[in-house]
Amino acid sequence: MKRSIRLRHDIARRLADQAIARRTSQAAIIEAALDSFLSPDAAERLEAALSRRLDRITRDLGRLEWHVALSNETLALFIRNWLNVMPVLPDSGRDEVRAQGRERWERFVEALSRRMEQGPRLTTEVSPDVPNSVSGSL
Q1: Which of 12, 18, 82, 97 would staple 7 via disulfide (CB 3.0–4.6 Å)?
Q2: Rounded mean pLDDT of 65-79?
């Protein structure tokens, strides 16, 4: 039975592009899509696909959480150590020390930029599989 349908222009264009790319007819693509949509297990397939995607997102969020925790602990440990070792500066030498601080900051930013672009990354040196690797004490 031959039927005629109207599609929005953008959908018709995408359908035509897919037919060309797959070297098949537009009717074959529409039939396959309708068959999939109307099949009794379409809801289960959709649920399974969504479940797989949610599982992947959950794993990705777990890795992201680990990286953020590592960054936070690294920064906190650095600040704690820095505060413990830095002496109070006398008023007379502050300008010279600030100039050295600016120079050291610029070198740090350059080194950080290189490491972020080229690696290696700290997260490759610290394993997320080791218990307490992020919050362990030194």
Answers
A1: 12
A2: 91
Domain range enclosing 116: 94-126
Total count of domains within the chain: 3
Quote the CA–CA distance of 99 and 2 in Å, as a whole number.
82
**Residue tagged 């537009």 (tokens):** 26
Separation of alpha carbons 26 and 24, rounded Å:
7
Collect all residues with Cβ–Cβ distance below 8 Å to 126 and sequence separation of at least 6: 70, 133, 134
Residue 135 lies in a domain: no
**78-93 residue pLDDT tens:** 999 888 888 887 888 8
Among 62-71, 92-101, 113-122, 127-136, the range scoring the smallest mean pLDDT is 127-136
Residue 137 lies in a domain: no
